[in-house]
């Protein structure tokens, strides 16, 4: 015979709500900053992967700082 789990007591519900309040949703500005930093990271990855590719082909770019900026 399988026992059904008991209904949550009010104490359990309160503690669950407190846990949810402990992790607030980040403000929109923070999310935008995160998205921008991800974009920059992706761009940097692309730049450096392109540089590696060019190096393999023995093509040297002296001024790669201009590519990054």
Number of helical elements: 3
Arithmetic mean of pLDDT: 68
Sheet having the most strands: none
Shape: rod-shaped
Q: Kindly provide the radius of gyration, computed on alpha-carbon positions and rounded to a whole number of angstroms.
A: 26 Å
Q: Provide the helix percentage.
A: 55-70%
The N- and C-terminal alpha carbons lie at a distance of 69 Å
**H/E series:** HHH
Structural class: mainly alpha
Beta-strand percentage range = under 5%
Biased composition (Polar residues): 12-22
Region (Disordered): 1-41
Descriptive account of the structure:
Residues 1-41 are annotated as: Disordered. Residues 12-22 have a biased composition (Polar residues). This protein has 3 helices and no strands. It starts with 9 loop residues before the first helix and ends with a helix. It has a domain at 29-69. By secondary structure, it is an all-alpha fold.
Summarize the structure.
The chain is an all-alpha fold and 69 residues long.
Write the layout of secondary structure elements.
Blueprint: H1 10-22, H2 28-56, H3 64-68
Give a quick set of tags describing it.
69 residues, single chain, mainly alpha, 68% helix, 3 helices
